[in-house]
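Per-record layout

source: Paenibacillus contaminans
name: DNA-binding response regulator
length: 350
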Amino acid sequence: MLQVLVVEDERWIRRNMCKMIEEVDGYQVAGEAKNGVEALQMLQSRPPHVLMTDIHMPFMNGLQLSEAAKRVLPMLEIVLFSGYNDFEYVREGLRQGVHDYLQKPVQTEDLHRTMQQIANKIAHKKGKLHQQFVWMEAWRVNANRLAESLWLVDKPKFETEWSVLSSEWLKNGDGQENVYEFFHLLIYFINERIRVNYGAQLPEHVFHPLDFTGDAAQDAELIRQHLMGVLNELLTQRNWRKSHVVTKALHYIHSEYAHPHFSLIDAAELTGLSQPYLSRLFKEEMGRTFMEYVTELRIDKARELLENPDAKVYEVVGAVGYTEYAYFVRVFKRIVGYSPSDYRKQLGLK
């Protein structure tokens, strides 16, 4: 039986999660904790196979707990869950080796799918040391080209770059044990390349792990089909006029987000489109509204500025385009889960 530790500060949610886990064949709840501090103590005294944790909790959030737990138990499988708009945290968790995330309220079929994947993953890795994909750095140029061909919907180039990358991975001889790590690192790397180069990002569903078979060649093909599905999705959503217009709007956003009177109207005038038409194109291509994108960018920049111990919160407010302190605090807490001052405490800053 695979043992699971459930960490959630709300008791009724925690109990419901435990009940759902007990209904999955091959799994048993090893313990419950209401915060990360309790969870770390339990991890050391009764090491489980799987940690399932909420992201937002007092004293220590789920991402901090995951990082600390991996130091204690490097082979531990971790699943995050949250009811907030936490995808920046989720991406960081996946980069650190978290297996998956589930949106609250957690659906039974999603939980069963994830637990089956973890069972297969543990079976594949049994008796073997966990290996890191240091080759990703060596193949960075090839992975860059793969990311660009995906975003630019260049199918021939995509097939060429994927053939090179997957062939090298398969020649490692350990693909069966490391397919989840390969998948997570590759998706994270592709997303980062697209974010840096084009100011965009992959849709959330792309980050969910696949139901891998245990056969390395078949699993490589599953990943290829997954990425090709993303490419085809981009192709159907986009024509070149849309891409040009939205790219122009993105450059405008990234250069003007700190201006307090910045608006969709200004962007529409810049692109030569009506406000409703630009709004619709932007939502189709970016997967979020114009102002949702602006708000997330502003809060991301605010988080970066708050990491400077010398920066004053009221200075950060103006630096990211807000004029009202109270409104900024409400938006920051809604997206990050903490007030700016509590966020700094989480970082160990005053």
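summary: The longest helix spans residues 175-198. The mean pLDDT is 81.
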